Fold these 3 entries.
Entry 1:
Amino acid sequence: MTDQQRVTLTVNGTQRSADVDPRTLLSDFLRHELGLTGTHVGCEHGVCGACTVMFDGQAVRSCLMLAVQAEAHHIETVEGLAQGETDLHPLQQAFWETHGLQCGFCTAGIMMTMIPFLRDNPDPGEHEIREALSGNLCRCTGYQHIVEAVQLAATRLATAK
Amino acid sequence: MKPAPFKYLSPKSLEQALEMVRDEGPDAKLLAGGQSLIPAMNFRLLQPSALIDLNQIPSLSYIRPDGKGGLRIGAMTRQSSVEHDLLVREVSPLLHQTMPRIAHRQIRNRGTMGGSLVHADPAAELPVVATALRCQFKLRSLEGERWVAAQDFFVGMFTTVTGPNEILEEIAIEPTPPRTGWAFLEVARRSGDYAMAGVAAMLSLDADGRMSDARLVYLNVGDGPVETPEAVARLIGLPPEDETFAEAARIASETEIMPFGNIHATPEYQRHLAEVLTRRALAQAAERAQV
């Protein structure tokens, strides 16, 4: 076996450390070492988008990165969105209200894709939203309610500014 | 699935990386963006003995003018950086417009320019566009450097001329010549999927409005970027007209490309797509050349 390596990174604003095998994927590191099981693991080859997290502010597939590559970087996961149990992020609130999820497996990845998308495109059209969602598979909703949720969140985030 | 164990190395300079490449031997792999390598390792299609991670070498990530109207892109520059760069948009509109067609945003945020080129997937956009643009690639080894033209770089499926002790350092792109138009078109079952067929076209007009130079380069219809010299020869010296484009498209799609077919498309359907896309791409390129 290869030697374990110490990884220190910032997750949702908090510095975290753990010893890992170099072959540990970032997705497994978040779930198994840090206990952040909100990040889901679907296909493990970059197609489904369920494991999407923010890496230094950009959406990436955490199953296509090694944990050791996140050394000294900033990761944000779905656990960092809500301020409290009842104080949801506007995007989460919009998903709740418009029924933007059913089983919820894809939802965390969609959130972490849509947050940087709405940051960079505060007033997106429907086509842009669908294009931005194209890297996240949802097998329950048919996407219609997800698009509505993103539109609602965009409106509220714009008003809040 | 998870990757098999490997030794992880994180060089801080290109020189150090080259020494590691020499010391680790042929079973080691270079890790760029990892958007193709890591899935292949997750599936255990690849089990490298060591990974030499190039992500800690900031000097490999840049986009800068070459002082002669063209530009230079460092091999580790992220695809999303190329996509949003204003200089790229100005110097190479073909490259600029092709970038969003590569996979998904999450992949482009991590995937690199050089990684995609050296991976040389026949279905990838960048090898095709680099060939259409006649880009030059700088390969670095401990012995020195050499430049290879894109049209000589790709030699087969997932294979380039890059030697075992070489690392792609930089991509050089010439400015688009005057009276030259361009187009990139592809068809995929779903947005972001590998395309069933695609084509990059470059078309130059002379002072009389006749076609003086052209390039047609195809993706996923052969074992690398596929050029169609007979179809191009059919264009040269003629005015840009639909019947001429249709004839070139017929030659390219019927006799010059070699589609293998896959679960998404039969070879016949790929030929059909290539024929339609060629006509459209040439018409678009001709229109842009006349501006």
Entry 2:
Amino acid sequence: MIRLYMAMSLDGFIAGPDDRPGQELGRDGARVMNWGNYRMSDGPDGQVFREAMATGAVISGRRTFELAGRWQGDHHDGVPIFVLTHHVDDGDVPPGSARFVTDVADCAELARAGAGDRDVMVHGAGAAQALLRGGVLDEMEIHLAPVLLGGGRRLFDALGPDHIELELIRRLEGRDATHLRYRVHRHPAQNEK
Amino acid sequence: MGSIVLYMSMSLDGFIAGPGDTKDNPFGTGGHRLHKWLGPSGEGFRPSDKPSRTIFEEVMSTGAVITGRRTGDFVGYWDGDHHDGVPIFVPTHHAPEVTPPGDVRFVTDGIGTCAEQARTAAGDRDVLVHGAYTARECLRARVLDVMEIQLIPVLLGQGRLLFDGLGPDHIELALVRSLESPNALHLRYEVKYA
């Protein structure tokens, strides 16, 4: 299963304005991650966090990867990290278990193989949009934060005119987020592939 | 005193209408998807599942309506009767020369006044807010008490956003109820102004 994990405000933002190194979640954007304060709990927040950390591979967008300081090559437990990017500089070898991939379908295939019988965790808006467009995202775990951020970076932006049908398959009420798990239903055109 | 409540169907990616919403096509291209939870329109909009019916009945038991000029014009002010003949308040800069039928009141001295008049008219009952622009104006003026969002399990991909250009100040919410139905997740948030 390839599953997106992202915290999002009710107005659709995953970070405040001006996200950059040193201010990775944008101005005041850390608000959307408040639920993470309860990630070690026995409750729903802890459950969701443990599930994310039990994944067997990570897919990240290039921007998220760089903002996160390339996770020093280890997102969690040394699982392989596949970084979607348009361009790789000669001699730029990412650290640890990370590697660059330029094709969405290849990336999904490599991550599935790398994860074995475990799930794949996706992180970042760019990666999410690319995988959705490529029809290879299976599920989304959205941590919906009870706040209107008012501005910043949107999770879903300019996805295009085709509707993507979802199915809510689980809802967990956390301390500062509603954890919504959606199954992504393939667009009919993608089913034929 | 009742609450001023926004009821709005929104896709997970934040849209309340498809692109190209006009008077002839008020939901925009493909925007009908967002209103499937209401049931087939041919049967006069009656949701079949219990949670959705609960929401629908709440809407229909409000004691006044605030609607934006754009939304109001699109739907012809419901011929002056949204439900049970409750008064319809329209915040606007200029009242039209031709007044629509029924109890439609154009309020030209600000959203605050409009909200106050609607509250008074509704008495103990809630006030229903219609329209994205008006919802945002109510938020900015800090008169919106509750948002009842019908979160629809679809990515619409484009169209008209509910929350757009609200500005840098966070508005904290408290989730006070969530009801799951096959076609919508009904999320009721109280607005907590700082």
Entry 3:
Amino acid sequence: MVAYLLRRLVALGVVLFCVVSATFFLIRLSPGGPFDAERKLPPAIEKQLLAKYKLDGSLWQQYSGYLGDLVRGDLRLSTKYRNRSVNEILAQTLPVTLTLGAAAFLVATLAGVWLGTFAATHHGHAGDTGAMLAALLAISLPSFVIGPLAILIFALWLGWLPVGGWGGLSHLILPAIVLAAPYVATIARLMRGSMLETLNQDFVRTARAKGLRENVVLYRHALRLAILPVISYLGPLAANLLTGSIVVETIFNIPGAGGFFVNSILNRDGFLLGGVIIVYCALLVVLNLVVDLAYTVLDRRIQLDG
Amino acid sequence: MDNPAPLTPLQRLGRKPVALACTAILAALALVAVFAPLFFPAAYAAPSPLQYAPPSWAHPFGTDLNGRDLLLRVLMGTRVSLIVGICGAVVSLVIGTAYGLVSGYTGGRIDSAMMRLVDILYSIPRLIFILVLINAFNRNLQNFAAAHDWQTLVDYSSIVILVFSLGIIEWLTMARIVRGQVLALKSRQFVTAARALGQSHLKILLRHLLPNLLGVIIIYLTLTIPAVIIDESFLSFLGLGIQAPHASLGSLLSDGAAAINPLRNLWWTIVFPSAVMALTLLALNFLGDALRDALDPRR
């Protein structure tokens, strides 16, 4: 177990190093610098600017300097939002993105597991067909289709919820549901398949034969085994939610990190872009490790040796 | 399963009304998107003072911010989305099939290393990297094309880059599926026989394994097209994909979402692009599911 954990941590470090390097070179090698405006800057000023933002020196010097700063936890200055550091910007926006992501994560897993179990227990009946049809609908319709339609219906016509922005719980409901919808469907499908398989196994029959209530059989006994495919999907789910939240933040005008990410590409704001990517990837790699560990806790049959 | 003579996949597909309906819808959409714009008056594509006119007989879908006919915009957008979706899916098919074939056929350590890479890529926000990549290469390609006087490539460089980048994103599932199939196939006797006859690895891969994989590949091609269309619209929605004056369903939706305001309800700018997009994606996904059932009756 300890050896496995160590090996995973080393692998985690390698992945992060590759991500950082790939990001750095992609940004530095794309044509056009952050200070290319319509009007050419005087050489002296440009030189000073480059020095301030540590963009002078050879590519190798810049790269090693950046790596050094990263190790110290310094994501450097934004070249667009002058005098604000990337750390500051992320400290303000990341909590918003993470709140939205966590809410959507909860919605997706809880609703997905429940819906999948429901479909499996109603196998072959109208409830199953209906749930799976709804799932196919939700998978096929991306957030930028559902989102504006949801605003149109629930905010503009019915007036139940705010059009957008960020504040109380009411601002969280629509974005979280829109962000979670396709993944509710994906999890429901996974859950239905594995639950159908599990319900045919001997231990479930034994549990029923003992006279346990159906809910106990389902949620205490069968769920523990049937949920494993869902657990292994949680890693990709987190990645999809982080990517998806960029669009949802744009639709609902939520001041999260996603908007800054898009703008940093348009503005060639290299360090901000790099910062967002690195933080996102670090989050995901750690989450994946947690998911894998959770998997082994839930399923003792699995030996960790990867 | 009391049918004595097993049906061919095509026959099974023919018995599914959903699959036939989806094929008909897709064919109709593609035909309309390709040919209908030819019959529109030229003025409909140009900006006019008729800003945000609601749907009427002259403009069934209304008009947009610049007074252009929204029906024509939606048709042009569908055209672009379909082209990008199909081409991107083909690119991903080539990459994914090659990767899966090599990984499954080689086996052993190389196989597990290759699949580990796929696992890692699955859990990284690939679209985010692709965004950076597109931005970096688009300018390079434009400079390159301008230097060679290829005006068409300058105009369409963003679409070309988009197609390739989206193909690079969506090959993972295909690689996994193909590898699984190859693992199952390579221990079968016809492969052993081919090897005993002294055929080269390349020949076994292309002549013996690939034809057996065609069914699976076609299914996942139908399921990859909607995925690529969604990715493209995602990028266009953020203003990083198809650039104006070109339109795709994603950029139209983005325009619609940007026009949302509490004072005036411009529902047609959202409802019509959404409806066409939903119809396309649903038809493709239903068709893919039906194909999967038809080729693999066990599921």
